[in-house]
Design goal:
three-stranded antiparallel β-sheet; Glutamyl-tRNA Synthetase, domain 3; mainly alpha; 45% helix; elongated; binds glutamic acid; Arc Repressor Mutant, subunit A
């Protein structure tokens, strides 16, 4: 059996979009699942879209996500160069374009902008205007072409697609697709600046680099018949095509920059873990046989079968990603969690909290957050008592209300004033004594104390833990404030 070779072929145009990350991940998984080779090729022939620094982003993202390539610009595997602008310098694209001209499958076109602008345009289903070139230059004689070339007249090279007949190609997910040739434009293969178009370079490169499986977004589906015609014209074997479903936002619109979480870097900036992002992206269009959803990269390699990719659009659900990230946080080793949470704790907690205290708090919030930035909402009350409504003292289950809370706080204030051991255990024993003496239920006492200390319905810690964290002075201040509020 032939060895599987896949490629991730990004254009360096900015941050790595979630859709690109998914293509890269699936290309990686298709190769690794079958023990094949995963290659990186930089497609930088569109000079107008080139963004400085974007190549570094690609390397960085692939390294961080663990999508390690076996071959690429920095790892020669014998199929280089791996950057299209460098491949161009070897003359490879022009050589193959000329071969097509010889075969009558391509031709020189000298039409200027004015003429091209005057061609009839139609609008497709998506409202995109399309111009089908009228083959004007196909009828130029050999002499005319040579004279134009000798005079240095700017030219492009176009693919020659007959107006009659149909072209069929096969996609692993979409099956056989047949289109009328009359719908296919004589697309440009070599531009007037001498660079190949993506449409031509991807075919030449995928063939000459021995690529067996091409995984990419379905925006390329409509161009695929033209690629297949090129493969056929050369007599080359067409790779296996796997076009992936669209990724939409929550409103079922194509996921775009506007959603605010369209790229890997956006997500990292929002506090998502790399492993969770990769895991989530893997499920955007693919599902395993069982219902499991949490997978490490090596588990994905083991399970990934591209036949199980789904054709229907996948919704990028940030709520689900948050849930998944939370699962990863829960499983994280405590030391690692603390190390990663520390910058957020430092920002949110009072400046005089020491490391031991911060560690304790990290342990309290670990199972309660979904992303690190959630930490602030968990611990902000430690920094400053929020302004709260005394309604909060009323709790049905604890059988508390404003009056009962006032009575309890008045009782416990002197007890807490006379205690110097502000550790959780000691405080708990002290308060328990009071609870028992009075014959109350725990919650009847702890609820008002916790409310006075935090001003919040929910806290990651109980009343006595908060007393310990705040310390005596601050705790007493807050209890007094509670009494004051309840006495008004
Ligand atoms: N350079 C193309 C892109 O970044 C690659 C498409 C493909 O994988 O063939 O979208």
């Amino acid at each position: 059996m032939e060895k599987i070779r896949t490629r991730y072929a990004p254009s360096p145009t900015g941050r790595m979009h979630v859709g690109n990350l998914r293509s890269a991940l699936y290309e990686f998984l298709v190769a690794k699942h079958a023990g094949g080779t995963f290659m990186l090729r930089i497609e930088d022939t569109d000079q107008e879209r080139y963004v400085e620094g974007a190549v570094d982003i690609i390397y960085r993202t692939m390294k961080e996500t663990g999508l390690v390539h076996d071959e690429g610009p920095d790892k020669d595997g014998g199929y280089g160069p791996y950057v299209q602008s460098e491949r161009m310098k070897t003359g490879i694209y022009m050589k193959y374009a000329k071969e097509l001209i010889e075969k009558g499958e391509a031709y020189y076109c000298f039409c200027d902008k004015e003429r091209l602008d005057s061609l009839k345009t139609t609008v497709d289903e998506d409202g995109k205007s399309i111009t089908i070139y009228d083959k004007h230059c196909l009828s130029l004689s050999k002499e005319e072409i040579e004279a134009n070339l000798a005079a240095g007249k700017p030219f492009v090279i176009r693919q020659n697609i007959p107006n009659e007949g149909t072209t069929t190609f096969h996609d692993e997910l979409y099956g056989d697709i047949t289109v009328d040739n009359s719908e296919l434009d004589d697309m440009i293969l070599i531009k007037s600046d001498g660079y190949p178009t993506y449409n031509f370079a991807n075919v030449v490169d995928d063939h000459t680099m021995n690529i067996t499986h091409v995984v990419r977004g379905n925006e390329y589906l409509s161009s695929s018949p033209k690629y297949v015609r090129l493969y056929d014209a050369f007599g080359w074997k067409v790779p296996v095509y796997i076009h992936l479903p669209l990724i939409t936002d929550e409103n079922h619109k194509k996921l775009s920059k506007r959603s605010g979480h369209a790229s890997f870097e956006d997500l990292v900036e929002q506090g998502f873990l790399t492993e969770a992002i990769v895991n989530y992206v893997a499920l955007l269009g693919w599902s395993p046989e069982d219902n499991n959803e949490i997978f490490s990269l090596s588990e994905l390699i083991e399970k990934f079968d591209y036949h199980r990719i789904n054709k229907s659009p996948s919704v990028f659900d940030i709520v689900k990603l948050r849930w998944m990230n939370g699962e990863y946080l829960k499983k994280m080793d405590d030391d690692k969690f603390y190390e990663m949470a520390k910058p957020y704790l430092d920002k949110s907690l009072p400046a005089d909290y020491d490391d031991a205290k911060k560690r304790k708090i990290a342990g309290m919030v670990k199972t309660r957050i979904e992303v690190f930035p959630d930490i602030d909402a968990q611990v902000d009350f430690l920094r400053e008592l929020p302004d709260y409504d005394i309604e909060m003292y009323s709790h049905k289950k604890m059988k508390t209300d404003a009056a009962s809370s006032l009575a309890v706080l008045k009782d416990v204030l002197p007890i807490l004033e006379s205690t110097d051991d502000y550790t959780n255990d000691a405080l708990y024993q002290t308060l328990l004594k009071y609870v028992e003496e009075k014959g109350y239920k725990n919650g009847y006492v702890m609820w008002p104390i916790r409310t006075a200390l935090s001003g919040k319905q929910m806290t990651p810690a109980g009343a006595t833990e908060i007393l310990e964290l705040l310390g005596k002075d601050e705790s007493l201040k807050r209890i007094k404030k509670g009494i004051e509020k309840l006495s008004l």
